[in-house]
Amino acid sequence: MSFNVSGLPENLLPDDASPEWMSKADNAWQLTAATLVGLQSVPGLVILYGSIVKKKWAVNSAFMALYAFAAVLVCWVGWGYQMSFGKKMIHFWGRPDVSLDENFLLSRAFAGYLPNATMVYFQFVFAAITLILIAGALLGRMNFHAWMLFVPLWLTFSYTIGAYSIWCPEGWLAKLGIIDYSGGFVIHLSSGVAGFTAAYWVGPRATKDRERFPPNNILLMLAGAGLLWMGWTGFNGGDPYNAGTDASLAVLNTHVCTATSLLTWLILDILFFGKPSVIGATQGMITGLVCITPAAGVVQGWAAILMGMMSGSIPWYTMMVLHKKIPMLKRVDDTMAVFHTHAVAGSLGGILAGFFANPKLNRIFYLVDDWEHYIGLAYGFQSNRASAGFRQMGVQLLGISFVIALNIFTTSVICVLIRIVVPLRLTDEELQTGDDAIHGEEAYALWGDGEKYESRINSAYGAEDFPPAVSKGKGQQ
Predict the structure, then answer these.
(1) TM spans, by residue (predicted)?
(2) Please, what's the b/e burial string for 246-272 (b: 16 or more CB within 10 A of its CB; e: otherwise)?
(3) Which of 16-25, 80-89, 271-280, 375-384 has the weakest average pLDDT?
Protein backbone atom coordinates (compact mmCIF):
# COMPACT_ATOMS: atom_id res chain seq x y z
CA MET A 1 0.00 0.00 0.00
CA SER A 2 1.39 3.40 -0.95
CA PHE A 3 1.04 6.53 1.15
CA ASN A 4 0.75 10.19 0.27
CA VAL A 5 2.52 13.14 1.91
CA SER A 6 -0.11 13.36 4.66
CA GLY A 7 0.77 9.87 5.84
CA LEU A 8 -2.60 8.48 4.73
CA PRO A 9 -3.08 5.69 2.19
CA GLU A 10 -3.57 7.16 -1.29
CA ASN A 11 -7.13 5.79 -1.54
CA LEU A 12 -8.12 7.47 1.74
CA LEU A 13 -8.67 11.21 1.84
CA PRO A 14 -7.97 13.30 4.99
CA ASP A 15 -11.68 14.08 5.28
CA ASP A 16 -12.39 10.35 5.64
CA ALA A 17 -10.31 10.20 8.81
CA SER A 18 -11.87 13.33 10.31
CA PRO A 19 -15.06 14.20 8.42
CA GLU A 20 -16.71 17.59 8.86
CA TRP A 21 -19.72 16.15 10.65
CA MET A 22 -17.63 14.53 13.42
CA SER A 23 -16.74 16.37 16.62
CA LYS A 24 -13.34 15.24 17.83
CA ALA A 25 -14.11 16.39 21.38
CA ASP A 26 -17.44 14.58 21.52
CA ASN A 27 -15.93 11.45 20.02
CA ALA A 28 -13.04 11.48 22.50
CA TRP A 29 -15.43 11.91 25.43
CA GLN A 30 -17.73 9.19 24.15
CA LEU A 31 -14.90 6.67 23.84
CA THR A 32 -13.71 7.65 27.33
CA ALA A 33 -17.20 7.35 28.79
CA ALA A 34 -17.65 3.93 27.18
CA THR A 35 -14.37 2.73 28.65
CA LEU A 36 -15.40 3.98 32.11
CA VAL A 37 -18.59 1.92 31.82
CA GLY A 38 -16.54 -1.06 30.66
CA LEU A 39 -14.32 -0.69 33.73
CA GLN A 40 -17.43 -0.96 35.89
CA SER A 41 -17.77 -4.53 34.62
CA VAL A 42 -14.15 -5.50 34.01
CA PRO A 43 -12.69 -5.29 36.57
CA GLY A 44 -15.31 -3.54 38.76
CA LEU A 45 -18.06 -6.15 39.07
CA VAL A 46 -15.58 -8.97 38.52
CA ILE A 47 -13.80 -7.84 41.70
CA LEU A 48 -17.03 -7.03 43.56
CA TYR A 49 -18.61 -10.42 42.83
CA GLY A 50 -15.42 -12.34 43.47
CA SER A 51 -14.96 -10.77 46.90
CA ILE A 52 -18.50 -10.38 48.25
CA VAL A 53 -19.26 -14.10 48.02
CA LYS A 54 -18.10 -17.00 50.16
CA LYS A 55 -14.50 -17.98 49.48
CA LYS A 56 -15.35 -21.18 47.67
CA TRP A 57 -17.41 -19.22 45.08
CA ALA A 58 -14.89 -16.43 44.35
CA VAL A 59 -13.58 -17.78 41.04
CA ASN A 60 -16.96 -18.88 39.70
CA SER A 61 -18.65 -15.57 40.55
CA ALA A 62 -15.90 -13.47 39.00
CA PHE A 63 -15.75 -15.67 35.92
CA MET A 64 -19.50 -15.46 35.30
CA ALA A 65 -19.02 -11.70 34.94
CA LEU A 66 -15.92 -11.98 32.76
CA TYR A 67 -17.54 -14.52 30.43
CA ALA A 68 -20.65 -12.38 30.01
CA PHE A 69 -18.57 -9.35 29.03
CA ALA A 70 -16.80 -11.27 26.26
CA ALA A 71 -19.85 -13.16 25.01
CA VAL A 72 -22.02 -10.05 24.79
CA LEU A 73 -19.47 -8.25 22.61
CA VAL A 74 -19.39 -11.00 20.00
CA CYS A 75 -23.20 -11.19 19.91
CA TRP A 76 -23.46 -7.38 19.88
CA VAL A 77 -21.42 -6.84 16.74
CA GLY A 78 -22.91 -9.98 15.19
CA TRP A 79 -26.57 -8.99 15.51
CA GLY A 80 -27.42 -7.33 18.83
CA TYR A 81 -26.66 -3.70 17.99
CA GLN A 82 -28.75 -3.68 14.84
CA MET A 83 -31.64 -5.37 16.66
CA SER A 84 -31.47 -2.59 19.25
CA PHE A 85 -30.77 0.47 17.10
CA GLY A 86 -30.97 -0.59 13.46
CA LYS A 87 -33.68 -0.83 10.84
CA LYS A 88 -37.17 -1.61 12.05
CA MET A 89 -38.33 -5.23 11.85
CA ILE A 90 -41.49 -4.83 13.95
CA HIS A 91 -42.60 -1.90 16.09
CA PHE A 92 -40.67 -3.08 19.16
CA TRP A 93 -37.70 -4.85 17.56
CA GLY A 94 -34.94 -4.13 15.08
CA ARG A 95 -33.79 -6.33 12.21
CA PRO A 96 -30.75 -8.54 13.00
CA ASP A 97 -27.65 -7.63 11.04
CA VAL A 98 -23.90 -7.43 11.53
CA SER A 99 -22.09 -4.28 12.66
CA LEU A 100 -18.66 -4.99 11.21
CA ASP A 101 -18.71 -3.34 7.79
CA GLU A 102 -16.29 -0.41 7.56
CA ASN A 103 -18.72 1.69 5.53
CA PHE A 104 -21.25 1.41 8.33
CA LEU A 105 -18.77 1.82 11.21
CA LEU A 106 -17.15 4.96 9.74
CA SER A 107 -20.42 6.68 8.87
CA ARG A 108 -22.32 9.02 11.19
CA ALA A 109 -24.31 7.46 14.03
CA PHE A 110 -28.04 8.04 14.52
CA ALA A 111 -27.32 10.44 17.40
CA GLY A 112 -24.52 12.90 18.04
CA TYR A 113 -21.52 13.90 15.95
CA LEU A 114 -19.99 10.45 16.23
CA PRO A 115 -19.10 7.53 13.95
CA ASN A 116 -21.11 4.35 14.28
CA ALA A 117 -18.03 2.51 15.57
CA THR A 118 -18.08 4.69 18.69
CA MET A 119 -21.81 4.20 19.15
CA VAL A 120 -21.55 0.41 18.80
CA TYR A 121 -18.81 0.35 21.44
CA PHE A 122 -20.67 2.69 23.78
CA GLN A 123 -23.91 0.73 23.60
CA PHE A 124 -22.06 -2.59 23.98
CA VAL A 125 -20.77 -1.82 27.46
CA PHE A 126 -24.33 -1.07 28.60
CA ALA A 127 -25.58 -4.37 27.21
CA ALA A 128 -22.71 -6.22 28.87
CA ILE A 129 -23.23 -4.76 32.33
CA THR A 130 -26.93 -5.68 32.17
CA LEU A 131 -26.09 -9.38 31.82
CA ILE A 132 -23.46 -9.11 34.55
CA LEU A 133 -26.02 -7.56 36.90
CA ILE A 134 -28.36 -10.50 36.23
CA ALA A 135 -25.53 -12.82 37.24
CA GLY A 136 -25.55 -11.21 40.68
CA ALA A 137 -28.89 -12.89 41.45
CA LEU A 138 -27.55 -16.31 40.43
CA LEU A 139 -24.18 -16.50 42.18
CA GLY A 140 -23.35 -19.63 44.10
CA ARG A 141 -25.44 -22.24 42.30
CA MET A 142 -26.04 -21.74 38.54
CA ASN A 143 -24.48 -24.28 36.20
CA PHE A 144 -21.79 -22.41 34.25
CA HIS A 145 -22.71 -24.19 31.01
CA ALA A 146 -26.30 -23.01 31.46
CA TRP A 147 -24.98 -19.49 32.00
CA MET A 148 -23.00 -19.74 28.77
CA LEU A 149 -26.29 -20.38 26.93
CA PHE A 150 -28.32 -17.87 28.92
CA VAL A 151 -26.17 -14.85 28.05
CA PRO A 152 -26.59 -14.82 24.24
CA LEU A 153 -30.23 -15.93 24.42
CA TRP A 154 -31.29 -13.25 26.91
CA LEU A 155 -29.35 -10.55 25.08
CA THR A 156 -31.07 -11.50 21.83
CA PHE A 157 -34.64 -12.00 23.00
CA SER A 158 -34.96 -9.56 25.88
CA TYR A 159 -32.35 -6.81 25.98
CA THR A 160 -32.67 -5.89 22.32
CA ILE A 161 -36.46 -5.54 22.62
CA GLY A 162 -36.21 -3.22 25.61
CA ALA A 163 -33.42 -1.15 24.07
CA TYR A 164 -35.21 -0.75 20.72
CA SER A 165 -38.57 0.09 22.33
CA ILE A 166 -37.18 2.72 24.71
CA TRP A 167 -33.94 4.08 23.22
CA CYS A 168 -34.22 3.70 19.47
CA PRO A 169 -35.96 6.72 17.86
CA GLU A 170 -38.30 4.28 16.09
CA GLY A 171 -39.26 2.43 19.29
CA TRP A 172 -42.88 2.66 20.40
CA LEU A 173 -42.11 3.85 23.92
CA ALA A 174 -39.56 6.33 22.59
CA LYS A 175 -42.25 7.81 20.37
CA LEU A 176 -44.57 8.12 23.37
CA GLY A 177 -41.90 10.25 25.08
CA ILE A 178 -40.69 7.95 27.86
CA ILE A 179 -37.87 9.40 29.96
CA ASP A 180 -35.03 6.93 30.50
CA TYR A 181 -31.93 9.07 30.47
CA SER A 182 -29.36 6.31 30.81
CA GLY A 183 -30.93 2.93 31.49
CA GLY A 184 -33.15 2.88 34.56
CA PHE A 185 -35.62 0.84 32.51
CA VAL A 186 -33.46 -0.80 29.84
CA ILE A 187 -30.66 -1.87 32.18
CA HIS A 188 -31.60 -1.80 35.85
CA LEU A 189 -35.28 -2.68 35.93
CA SER A 190 -34.63 -5.31 33.25
CA SER A 191 -31.71 -6.89 35.11
CA GLY A 192 -33.54 -6.80 38.45
CA VAL A 193 -36.66 -8.52 37.12
CA ALA A 194 -34.74 -10.94 34.90
CA GLY A 195 -32.33 -11.82 37.71
CA PHE A 196 -35.17 -12.48 40.15
CA THR A 197 -37.04 -14.56 37.58
CA ALA A 198 -33.97 -16.59 36.65
CA ALA A 199 -33.21 -17.14 40.35
CA TYR A 200 -36.70 -18.64 40.71
CA TRP A 201 -36.07 -21.13 37.90
CA VAL A 202 -32.50 -22.01 38.91
CA GLY A 203 -33.44 -22.59 42.53
CA PRO A 204 -31.70 -21.62 45.77
CA ARG A 205 -28.14 -22.06 46.90
CA ALA A 206 -27.18 -24.95 49.17
CA THR A 207 -28.86 -24.56 52.56
CA LYS A 208 -25.53 -24.02 54.29
CA ASP A 209 -24.59 -21.24 51.86
CA ARG A 210 -27.97 -19.55 52.08
CA GLU A 211 -27.85 -19.47 55.88
CA ARG A 212 -24.28 -18.17 56.05
CA PHE A 213 -22.61 -16.45 53.12
CA PRO A 214 -19.81 -14.21 54.45
CA PRO A 215 -17.74 -12.08 52.05
CA ASN A 216 -14.25 -13.45 51.58
CA ASN A 217 -12.66 -9.99 51.30
CA ILE A 218 -14.54 -6.84 52.26
CA LEU A 219 -11.67 -4.51 51.40
CA LEU A 220 -11.50 -5.95 47.88
CA MET A 221 -15.28 -5.65 47.69
CA LEU A 222 -14.94 -1.93 48.40
CA ALA A 223 -12.37 -1.62 45.61
CA GLY A 224 -14.86 -3.14 43.18
CA ALA A 225 -17.61 -0.90 44.52
CA GLY A 226 -15.38 2.14 44.06
CA LEU A 227 -14.77 1.25 40.42
CA LEU A 228 -18.52 0.86 39.98
CA TRP A 229 -19.23 4.27 41.51
CA MET A 230 -16.54 6.20 39.64
CA GLY A 231 -17.31 4.39 36.40
CA TRP A 232 -20.84 5.75 36.61
CA THR A 233 -19.36 9.07 35.51
CA GLY A 234 -19.27 7.58 32.03
CA PHE A 235 -22.49 5.65 32.52
CA ASN A 236 -24.61 8.79 32.91
CA GLY A 237 -22.20 11.39 31.56
CA GLY A 238 -21.98 9.74 28.16
CA ASP A 239 -25.65 9.60 27.30
CA PRO A 240 -26.07 13.08 25.82
CA TYR A 241 -23.61 11.85 23.14
CA ASN A 242 -21.66 15.08 23.47
CA ALA A 243 -19.27 16.75 25.88
CA GLY A 244 -21.77 19.46 26.74
CA THR A 245 -23.45 21.08 29.70
CA ASP A 246 -26.01 18.31 30.13
CA ALA A 247 -23.24 15.73 30.51
CA SER A 248 -21.70 17.82 33.29
CA LEU A 249 -25.04 18.15 35.07
CA ALA A 250 -25.70 14.43 34.77
CA VAL A 251 -22.32 13.56 36.29
CA LEU A 252 -22.75 15.88 39.27
CA ASN A 253 -26.34 14.75 39.91
CA THR A 254 -25.19 11.13 39.77
CA HIS A 255 -22.58 11.55 42.49
CA VAL A 256 -24.77 13.77 44.68
CA CYS A 257 -27.65 11.30 44.63
CA THR A 258 -25.32 8.35 45.27
CA ALA A 259 -23.62 9.95 48.26
CA THR A 260 -26.99 10.93 49.75
CA SER A 261 -28.34 7.43 49.26
CA LEU A 262 -25.30 5.82 50.87
CA LEU A 263 -25.56 8.09 53.90
CA THR A 264 -29.30 7.51 54.22
CA TRP A 265 -28.86 3.73 54.16
CA LEU A 266 -26.00 3.99 56.66
CA ILE A 267 -28.10 6.05 59.10
CA LEU A 268 -30.99 3.59 58.87
CA ASP A 269 -28.64 0.69 59.59
CA ILE A 270 -27.30 2.47 62.67
CA LEU A 271 -30.76 3.43 63.93
CA PHE A 272 -32.32 -0.01 63.53
CA PHE A 273 -29.38 -2.42 63.88
CA GLY A 274 -26.92 -0.42 65.97
CA LYS A 275 -23.91 -0.87 63.68
CA PRO A 276 -22.68 0.95 60.55
CA SER A 277 -22.61 -1.87 57.99
CA VAL A 278 -20.05 -1.65 55.20
CA ILE A 279 -22.06 -4.01 53.02
CA GLY A 280 -25.18 -1.98 53.77
CA ALA A 281 -23.45 1.24 52.74
CA THR A 282 -22.40 -0.44 49.50
CA GLN A 283 -26.01 -1.43 48.85
CA GLY A 284 -27.06 2.18 49.48
CA MET A 285 -24.43 3.35 47.03
CA ILE A 286 -25.78 1.00 44.36
CA THR A 287 -29.42 1.99 44.87
CA GLY A 288 -28.46 5.66 44.58
CA LEU A 289 -26.60 5.04 41.32
CA VAL A 290 -29.52 3.06 39.93
CA CYS A 291 -32.22 5.50 41.02
CA ILE A 292 -30.63 8.58 39.47
CA THR A 293 -29.82 6.85 36.17
CA PRO A 294 -33.16 7.39 34.37
CA ALA A 295 -33.19 11.06 35.42
CA ALA A 296 -29.54 12.11 35.74
CA GLY A 297 -29.43 14.92 33.19
CA VAL A 298 -33.06 16.04 33.30
CA VAL A 299 -33.50 16.93 36.98
CA GLN A 300 -32.09 19.72 39.11
CA GLY A 301 -29.61 19.21 41.95
CA TRP A 302 -32.20 19.54 44.71
CA ALA A 303 -34.21 16.74 43.05
CA ALA A 304 -31.08 14.56 43.00
CA ILE A 305 -30.78 15.03 46.77
CA LEU A 306 -34.41 14.03 47.30
CA MET A 307 -33.99 11.04 45.00
CA GLY A 308 -30.96 9.98 47.01
CA MET A 309 -32.91 10.12 50.25
CA MET A 310 -35.66 7.97 48.75
CA SER A 311 -33.26 5.53 47.07
CA GLY A 312 -31.48 5.05 50.39
CA SER A 313 -34.68 4.40 52.32
CA ILE A 314 -37.33 2.74 50.12
CA PRO A 315 -35.13 -0.12 48.83
CA TRP A 316 -33.75 -0.41 52.38
CA TYR A 317 -37.30 -0.96 53.60
CA THR A 318 -38.15 -3.50 50.90
CA MET A 319 -34.92 -5.41 51.56
CA MET A 320 -34.82 -5.29 55.34
CA VAL A 321 -38.53 -5.41 56.19
CA LEU A 322 -40.81 -6.45 53.34
CA HIS A 323 -38.46 -9.17 52.13
CA LYS A 324 -39.04 -11.08 55.37
CA LYS A 325 -42.83 -10.75 55.14
CA ILE A 326 -43.65 -11.47 51.50
CA PRO A 327 -43.59 -15.23 50.78
CA MET A 328 -42.44 -14.90 47.16
CA LEU A 329 -39.48 -12.74 48.10
CA LYS A 330 -38.49 -15.17 50.84
CA ARG A 331 -38.79 -18.12 48.51
CA VAL A 332 -36.55 -16.84 45.71
CA ASP A 333 -32.84 -16.86 46.53
CA ASP A 334 -31.51 -13.61 45.04
CA THR A 335 -27.84 -13.74 46.06
CA MET A 336 -26.97 -10.07 45.58
CA ALA A 337 -30.49 -8.72 46.27
CA VAL A 338 -30.66 -7.56 42.65
CA PHE A 339 -34.44 -7.31 42.91
CA HIS A 340 -34.18 -4.62 45.58
CA THR A 341 -31.09 -2.78 44.36
CA HIS A 342 -32.04 -2.72 40.68
CA ALA A 343 -35.73 -3.58 40.12
CA VAL A 344 -37.05 -1.56 43.06
CA ALA A 345 -34.50 1.26 42.73
CA GLY A 346 -34.85 1.32 38.93
CA SER A 347 -38.66 1.55 39.12
CA LEU A 348 -38.35 4.24 41.77
CA GLY A 349 -36.00 6.24 39.55
CA GLY A 350 -38.32 5.90 36.57
CA ILE A 351 -41.29 7.17 38.57
CA LEU A 352 -39.31 10.04 40.09
CA ALA A 353 -38.02 10.99 36.63
CA GLY A 354 -41.64 11.36 35.60
CA PHE A 355 -42.22 13.60 38.60
CA PHE A 356 -39.06 15.76 38.77
CA ALA A 357 -38.07 16.02 35.08
CA ASN A 358 -37.45 19.66 34.18
CA PRO A 359 -38.92 20.66 30.77
CA LYS A 360 -35.95 22.90 29.97
CA LEU A 361 -33.43 20.15 30.70
CA ASN A 362 -35.49 17.66 28.74
CA ARG A 363 -35.41 19.94 25.69
CA ILE A 364 -31.62 20.20 26.01
CA PHE A 365 -31.25 16.43 26.22
CA TYR A 366 -33.86 15.31 23.69
CA LEU A 367 -33.23 18.30 21.38
CA VAL A 368 -36.95 18.91 20.90
CA ASP A 369 -39.15 21.92 21.60
CA ASP A 370 -42.10 19.92 22.91
CA TRP A 371 -44.24 21.29 25.71
CA GLU A 372 -46.61 18.31 25.80
CA HIS A 373 -44.00 15.62 26.29
CA TYR A 374 -41.02 15.30 28.62
CA ILE A 375 -42.47 17.31 31.48
CA GLY A 376 -42.37 16.13 35.07
CA LEU A 377 -45.60 16.14 37.05
CA ALA A 378 -44.19 18.66 39.53
CA TYR A 379 -43.53 21.13 36.71
CA GLY A 380 -46.90 20.31 35.21
CA PHE A 381 -48.56 21.58 38.36
CA GLN A 382 -46.25 24.60 38.46
CA SER A 383 -47.03 25.67 34.89
CA ASN A 384 -50.73 24.80 34.89
CA ARG A 385 -50.11 21.86 32.57
CA ALA A 386 -51.00 19.11 34.99
CA SER A 387 -52.53 16.98 32.22
CA ALA A 388 -49.15 16.85 30.44
CA GLY A 389 -47.46 15.92 33.73
CA PHE A 390 -49.96 13.13 34.39
CA ARG A 391 -49.48 11.92 30.85
CA GLN A 392 -45.72 11.73 31.42
CA MET A 393 -46.25 9.79 34.63
CA GLY A 394 -48.56 7.42 32.76
CA VAL A 395 -45.91 6.80 30.10
CA GLN A 396 -43.34 6.07 32.82
CA LEU A 397 -45.67 3.55 34.49
CA LEU A 398 -46.44 1.98 31.12
CA GLY A 399 -42.71 1.57 30.51
CA ILE A 400 -42.24 -0.09 33.89
CA SER A 401 -45.12 -2.49 33.23
CA PHE A 402 -43.78 -3.35 29.77
CA VAL A 403 -40.25 -4.07 31.01
CA ILE A 404 -41.53 -6.22 33.89
CA ALA A 405 -43.84 -8.28 31.68
CA LEU A 406 -41.21 -8.64 28.95
CA ASN A 407 -38.53 -9.92 31.30
CA ILE A 408 -40.71 -12.28 33.30
CA PHE A 409 -41.91 -13.89 30.06
CA THR A 410 -38.67 -14.02 28.06
CA THR A 411 -36.48 -15.03 31.02
CA SER A 412 -38.86 -17.82 31.98
CA VAL A 413 -39.00 -19.18 28.43
CA ILE A 414 -35.22 -19.04 28.10
CA CYS A 415 -34.66 -20.85 31.41
CA VAL A 416 -37.20 -23.56 30.56
CA LEU A 417 -35.57 -24.14 27.17
CA ILE A 418 -32.04 -24.22 28.58
CA ARG A 419 -32.88 -26.83 31.20
CA ILE A 420 -33.94 -29.17 28.38
CA VAL A 421 -30.32 -29.09 27.19
CA VAL A 422 -28.31 -28.74 30.42
CA PRO A 423 -29.26 -28.51 34.11
CA LEU A 424 -29.75 -24.94 35.32
CA ARG A 425 -28.39 -25.75 38.77
CA LEU A 426 -25.15 -27.32 39.86
CA THR A 427 -25.11 -30.77 41.41
CA ASP A 428 -25.15 -31.15 45.19
CA GLU A 429 -21.49 -32.18 45.12
CA GLU A 430 -20.52 -29.09 43.14
CA LEU A 431 -22.57 -26.89 45.47
CA GLN A 432 -20.69 -28.33 48.40
CA THR A 433 -17.21 -27.89 46.90
CA GLY A 434 -17.56 -24.74 44.80
CA ASP A 435 -14.79 -23.43 42.55
CA ASP A 436 -12.53 -26.46 42.62
CA ALA A 437 -15.30 -28.80 41.46
CA ILE A 438 -16.50 -26.44 38.71
CA HIS A 439 -13.29 -24.90 37.37
CA GLY A 440 -10.50 -26.90 38.96
CA GLU A 441 -9.19 -23.64 40.41
CA GLU A 442 -9.43 -21.75 43.68
CA ALA A 443 -9.08 -18.10 44.54
CA TYR A 444 -7.06 -18.44 47.75
CA ALA A 445 -4.74 -21.09 49.18
CA LEU A 446 -6.30 -20.52 52.60
CA TRP A 447 -8.60 -22.27 55.00
CA GLY A 448 -11.91 -20.58 55.66
CA ASP A 449 -15.66 -20.76 56.07
CA GLY A 450 -15.11 -23.09 59.03
CA GLU A 451 -14.32 -25.98 56.70
CA LYS A 452 -11.39 -28.34 56.54
CA TYR A 453 -9.07 -27.61 53.65
CA GLU A 454 -8.74 -30.80 51.62
CA SER A 455 -8.70 -29.50 48.06
CA ARG A 456 -5.91 -30.57 45.76
CA ILE A 457 -2.89 -28.33 45.18
CA ASN A 458 -3.32 -26.59 41.85
CA SER A 459 0.11 -25.34 40.87
CA ALA A 460 2.49 -25.44 37.95
CA TYR A 461 5.08 -27.00 40.27
CA GLY A 462 3.00 -29.96 41.46
CA ALA A 463 2.35 -31.24 44.98
CA GLU A 464 5.75 -32.95 45.28
CA ASP A 465 7.49 -29.55 45.21
CA PHE A 466 5.72 -28.38 48.39
CA PRO A 467 6.48 -29.30 51.99
CA PRO A 468 4.29 -32.15 53.34
CA ALA A 469 2.38 -29.78 55.63
CA VAL A 470 1.17 -27.82 52.59
CA SER A 471 0.65 -30.61 50.08
CA LYS A 472 -1.37 -32.78 52.49
CA GLY A 473 -3.44 -30.03 54.00
CA LYS A 474 -4.18 -29.02 57.57
CA GLY A 475 -4.28 -31.82 60.09
CA GLN A 476 -2.72 -34.40 57.74
CA GLN A 477 0.93 -33.81 58.44
Answers:
(1) 28-50, 57-79, 120-139, 146-167, 179-202, 214-232, 252-274, 286-317, 337-357, 397-422
(2) bbebbbbbbbbbbbbbbbbbbebbeee
(3) 16-25
